[in-house]
């Protein structure tokens, strides 16, 4: 079962457990133009591994790429995307592939759309004023 965890609670879990990891499954364009969670104050880096490739195809190497960055299933893994949908799918695949402790970051980096059709003002990592950076 995949638990949805609010961004602030994810941050607290990351602070409390130095083995906990954050995997951003968005696209390179999103990382570059929208920004990334910043874990530097925790002395860690975020793992950027896209769940979907250009054209919307699922990254068939996703699990392999998780392992290539040193994730072996023993660490708590928190998956984040824009709003929580892609990260939930990625977390499910990780769980099915033997990663034992996986979480979905509820509302993701930008959260759901507001009444005006914009993201970032309702919920999510940025709305919670958690550390992030933009390249």
Automatic annotation (TrEMBL):
One Pfam family it belongs to: Rhodanese
Gene3D superfamilies: Rhodanese-like domain (3.40.250.10)
UniProt-recorded name of the protein: Rhodanese-like domain-containing protein
Alphabetized SMART domains for the sequence: RHOD (SM00450)
Residues of the Rhodanese domain: 16-121
UniProt cross-references to InterPro entries, sorted A to Z: Rhodanese-like_dom, Rhodanese-like_dom_sf
Transmembrane segments: none
Organism superkingdom: Bacteria
């Amino acid at each position: 079962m995949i638990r949805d965890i609010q961004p602030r609670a994810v941050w607290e879990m990351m602070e409390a457990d130095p083995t906990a990891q954050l995997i951003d499954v968005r696209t390179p364009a999103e990382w570059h133009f929208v920004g990334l969670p910043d874990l530097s104050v925790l002395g860690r880096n975020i793992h950027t591994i896209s769940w979907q490739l250009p054209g919307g195809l699922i990254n068939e190497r996703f699990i392999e790429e998780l392992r290539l960055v040193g994730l072996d299933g023993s660490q708590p893994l928190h998956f984040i995307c824009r709003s929580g949908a892609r990260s939930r799918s990625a977390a499910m695949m990780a769980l099915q592939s033997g990663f034992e402790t996986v979480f979905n970051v509820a509302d993701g980096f930008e959260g759901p759309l507001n009444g005006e059709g914009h993201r970032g003002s309702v919920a999510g990592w940025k709305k919670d004023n958690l550390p992030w950076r933009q390249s």
